[in-house]
Each structure stands twice: as C-alpha cells, then as structure tokens.
Amino acid sequence: MSFADGLEVSQEQDTVSGGDTVAQPITGVIPPIVTPLTDGGDVDSGSLRRLIDHVLAEGARGVFVLGSTGEGTSFTAAQRTRVIELAADHLDGRGQLLAGVLAPSTAQTAELIPGAVAAGADAVVAAAPFYVATHAAEVDRHYRRLAEVAGPVPLVAYDIPPRVHSKLGAQVVIGLAADGVIAAVKDSSGDLPGLRGLLTERENHGITGFTILTGAEPTADVATALGVDGIIPGLGNLTVSPFVTILDVVSGGDLKAAAAAQAKILDLMAVFDVGDRGRISDSSATTGGIKSALVMMGVIDSAAVAEPLSRLDDSETARIRDLLVAAGLLSPRGPAPARA
Fold first, then answer.
1. Whether the model pTM is above 0.85
2. Among 17, 202, 323, 337, which is least packed, fewest CB within 10 Å?
3. Hey, what domains does the chain have and what are their CATH numbers?
4. Which DSSP letter does residue 151 get?
C-alpha cells in the first residue's frame, strides 16, 4: 500500500480549494503571535483580538498563529481550529493569516491542512518531520505531499533546527521553490552563512514569487541587508515598529538607522532571559516572558501557558516590568507588578 493510500482522508477529499484565499507574496513583518489563554486553559478570544489589533497598529502585514511562540503543538485539533477561525474573522482582510500545521509526521501534518484552510488561513506553515531522523530526500518528499494537500493555498517551509533537530538544506529549499512547491521559507536557524547561501541560490536560479523570511531577531538588520523579504519575530508581539523600521531604512541604504533599531531589539530581547532556566524551560521563559509582558501592557488578560509549561514567578515578572519601562513600552507609573 502506498503512503497516499494509507491516509485516512482520500486523495479526492484532502486537496483544499483555498476558498477566497488570494495567494499574495508573503513579505513584511508578520509576528508569530502568542495564543492567549484563560487561567483555565481555554483560548481567550478577547485577548487574541486585542493582540491582533496591537501588532497591526504598529505596521504588521499580518499574523502567524500556532507557531512555536504560539505553542501550536500544545493544542488539540479543535483548539487549533478555534484560534485560526478567531484570527481570520478578526483580521477580516486587514492582513495575511499564516497558520502553523506543526506535527511530527507527514500524515499528521497533512491531516491538519484542510481544517486550517477551511478555518480561514491564507497560508500554512509546516516544519520538517521531527522525532524521527530524516534524509534530505525524505524531507523533500514530505513537503511535496503537503503541497498536494494544500492545493492552491501557499505552503511555507519552517526551518527551525532547535525544535526539529535538523536543518533545511539550501538544495532542498531551492528545489522545492523552483518547482512551486513552497511559496516561502521562514528561516529561524540563525545561520547567517546559510541564509546568505540560500539568497544567492535563489538569485542564481532566477526563482521569482518565492520569499525568504528571517525569524532570528538578533540578526534582523543583517539578514535584511542580505536581502530577506520579511521578518517573523517573536518579539513583535511586544513591538513591531523596530522591525518595520529595519525593513524600511535598509531598502534606502540607511544602515545606521537600521543598527539603531536593532539595538532596541537586542535590549528588549532580555525579556527572553528573565526566566530562571534552573526552574523552567526555554519555551516557558520565552513564551511566558512575552505573555507576562503583554499582560502588563494591557494587551492580554492572563499569562497562562499551555501544559506542561510554567509561568514566570513574581520576581521574574517584576524584572519584565523594568525592561518594559526601560524600552518605553510601559509607564513608570504603571501598576505594581503582580502575578500575571
């Protein structure tokens, strides 16, 4: 029996039509937003709407839901669908909606795509298979199968070695892009030489309509100078404007202004380092740090994270507050820090 035959959904049923989706190039600043939760663990629709408005007001071109920052792998299929539906309804054409379909295998990822598109996603974002070790040829086959399921809806490859434990090679990415399998790649590897090579290969092959996006905040200015088409920054949950500035000024050749914006980003990235790694995980520290900050900024109601992640404690929350004040994102006269 072939792999396609083994899927529970038939080939005739699992190719999505895309509905009203318009396949526009994926460019600009598109923050991978957190998924606001109630203290009881349910998706907080009101907070999600406010968060979307918050990032759009600063110049975001859209939002990316259910990525790593959005804790996408922590939710049930029903919760994932709910997040996409809420985001699509509230965006209402004001920006692009990228939705993560993150799962360990090709079959599991393919099963998520039709529901994501039906819920309103303009593009779906998929990582390489994880847990199992894969060969480059198997990763290539993975994305080609997902593209068959997605149909006309753009497929974005997500290169995130810290989570997948393998890197998407330039040869695989360029081959997929040249064949129209993927519309974009989000490179969160932080590998600048690799990114430079990918940009060079795109140019050498004359590939058009395929965008390269960086998800590495520490090198956003350098990546933009190298030629990336957009930035997908987790820190964009708090402030989008420095990333918008970088894209704007680099295109005009003002590298000094880009460096100044990058310096603001690097200072604010201390939010990710507040959580004590002796007590909590990297994921808890980064996602929890963003959520705690957003609570203090009045954007979301709770810093609750999906199980089994942990919240920041009171002393860590107080340090987040100090960082926000220093960055000009919170008034010094704001409320005293409380358990978010």
1. yes
2. 17
3. 3-252 (3.20.20.70), 274-340 (no CATH)
4. T
